[in-house]
Amino acid sequence: MHVFYTPDLQDQAHYQLNEEESKHCSRVLRLSVGDTVFLIDGRGGLYEAEIETAAKKHVELRITKTTKAYQKRNHHLHIAVAPTKNIDRLEWFLEKATEIGIDEITPIICERSERKVVKGDRLEKVITAAVKQSLQAYHPVLNPAVTFSELLAQQTNAQQTDLHTSPQQTNAQQKNAQETNLHTSPNTSAQKSVSKLIAHCIDDEQRRYLKDLVQPHGNYLMLIGPEGDFSPQEISSALAEGFMPVTLGTTRLRTETAALAACFEINYLNR
Amino acid sequence: MHVFYTPDLQDQAHYQLNEEESKHCSRVLRLSVGDTVFLIDGRGGLYEAEIETAAKKHVELRITKTTKAYQKRNHHLHIAVAPTKNIDRLEWFLEKATEIGIDEITPIICERSERKVVKGDRLEKVITAAVKQSLQAYHPVLNPAVTFSELLAQQTNAQQTDLHTSPQQTNAQQKNAQETNLHTSPNTSAQKSVSKLIAHCIDDEQRRYLKDLVQPHGNYLMLIGPEGDFSPQEISSALAEGFMPVTLGTTRLRTETAALAACFEINYLNR
């Protein structure tokens, strides 16, 4: 099963792979005229297509079957995670979270983050590879890295916007969002209030399991801290902003493992 | 928090790190007399110790605090997984499963396995590193790789043994098992019947979610297939041996992701 990621594919009946993908299709995969391939537009569209022309730099396809909203999730999951010191671990998380199901990822630079910089294009490639491999019709959105306080501010602003936004405006905003390649899941914070969660490692009584805090079919934002955990100031400012403290279990988890555990759990609760 | 894995530690009041660990302790970590370290014996013992001597090749410790059965799990999880073509993916699974919680792992060589050989010592090191990092007092047991049919045969034999084994014999067997460094969790198959599960990718009606198949506090054996899935013959022979077909969700998961998803789900069901 050969899958290509074609974000610019609209509803046309024919599609031409770009030079790189054409080369991959005709030379690496050695596919030829009449062979079937699958296309994913990253916005829920899954397409079956037949190869009409198979030149080295020029592969033309005829769409033979279109499925919209393929395996559309019943919830919206946004995980904001501190990039790991060893970037492989963050890349690993992105691959696995994409396989299991995630809508939005934001790298957050925290007080104790050893890594302050992330290369978005590299991470984007990892996500796209996982999208193709696991046949996800919705491409998770990787937001630019922000500081912890910037993320909290974004949330506060988003909520204030929601309060003064009519459904019409929301749809318009979504259209813009789509055009500017922002996230376009139905469960945007503009439509449903966000369950704001923070998984910190300080062992206090307040932390509870996700299943005791959130409802299915929700819109979730989960914060996962760096190797050294969030600072007490970060935790208290998040709690002040209405984030609920979460425990992911009794064992010590690495940053990327905690982020994936949260991803597993939210998807599990939404089965 | 500096953790050392000391499988030969019994109940003595003093312990000497081996040459390699001594060097790591005194030269790499630059710890000195009076500093505190933690020891894990891999059989449930967590020890706090103070450095009495800190020579380059000779670090002596005095045990100051002993905790037995530290974070003892309330279930027994054995995952038999086909080694991935890229061994990094299997190593990644071992690290993550150790963090989340697993008792026993068996690499199984399947009909469609591209990788037929695994180096146990290398994988053992990965598990031990994760044990120390995530402070697991119980060291997961890595069994030698076996073929799929050998694994099924082992299960049949184990069951027959159970039927004719008195508790006394079982305890004796466990003592031997401990001496020969086999698995020593209380939930051995000799004590509790095993929930036998197989997660295959053929989309049929029979597959059910784990939560609908197993009870908490159980003894579970989960089979995870290679990149190309189990062969139909392997699936039917497993079903004939009483394995229950499981689905881990609707998305396409890589071998190591499926194995970790199963590990996460079993731990989740046993909270």
TrEMBL record, chains A, B:
Span of domain Ribosomal RNA small subunit methyltransferase E methyltransferase: 74-263
EC number: 2.1.1.193
CDD domains on file: RsmE-like
One GO CC term, this protein: cytoplasm
Record's catalysed reaction(s): uridine(1498) in 16S rRNA + S-adenosyl-L-methionine = N(3)-methyluridine(1498) in 16S rRNA + S-adenosyl-L-homocysteine + H(+)
Any one GO biological process: rRNA base methylation
One Pfam family hit: Methyltrans_RNA
UniProt subcellular location: Cytoplasm
Segments of this protein annotated with the region Disordered: 158-190
Main location: cytoplasm
Homology family: Belongs to the RNA methyltransferase RsmE family.
Name this polypeptide is given: Ribosomal RNA small subunit methyltransferase E
Organism this protein belongs to: Pedobacter quisquiliarum
Organism classification: Bacteria, Pseudomonadati, Bacteroidota, Sphingobacteriia, Sphingobacteriales
